[in-house]
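Recall that a protein's primary structure is simply its ordered list of amino acids. Everything else, from secondary elements to tertiary packing, is in principle encoded there. The following example makes that idea concrete.
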Amino acid sequence: MAESSRHPGDALRRARSLAAEALANEPAGLLTDFDGTLSPIVADPALSRLADGASAALERLVDQLAVVAVVTGRAPLDARRMTGVQGLLVAGNHGMEWLEPSADVPAPSPGAAGVRERIAVVLAAVPPLDGVTIEDKGLSATVHFRNAPDPSAARDAVIGALPDLGAELELRDGRMSLELRPVGLGDKGAATLAIIERYGLRGVVVMGDDITDLDMFAAVAEQREAGRLRGVIIGVGGADAEVPPEVSAAADAVLDSPEAAARLLTDLAGGDARLG
């Protein structure tokens, strides 16, 4: 049962204690979502930026841990630009494209051929509605309806206008958005498992705030239950009505905001001798 976000100080202390214990098991890594987790949700997704303090903390953790990875639905290059932190591994497009810390171009997952064309066909059917914007990421896409006069009606209109997705694509709810992505090509859970295996991680902290992050949570929980690693699951935005209750239910501790998540990272980067 996660610590209640009604007591933010207690929740932060619990998250800090659990995360420090996990990261003491080397090699250790931090895997985190971006939007709503390290970056406050904003009306224009293109203007998203890290919460205050997160950048400096991530820079220190990159030097201290085996891997610091942003596992996000965003396109990898966009995520790198928005974080501005060198040395991050970015698993973008829900894990379908990886941008290595030293790479200039992301590498697509196998089987990506033809996905872009199919997604373009579906996006062409999205009606031009006031306040509805499309974020086309090539191998996936997000339709945002946060700024629509009636977000619920806009969501229904978009769904009603889409053609049959067939077996190749799936549509998932996000935070005031709809996520369009290919089936079986990748998800955040598969990316998390791949990162754990690649770096041989024995300690993991995973952070997220949305339905798509449940795949990351489940991957870490499965590895933890099997005795393969020491892992802690941190939910973010527990006081936010947009955060699905499943996120809080799956987390070991719940922080009330991206700003609290930034404070956690700051503490971990400088407050535990075993990490520095």
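Residues 8-23 form the longest helix (16 residues). The chain has two domains: 8-108+186-270, 115-182.
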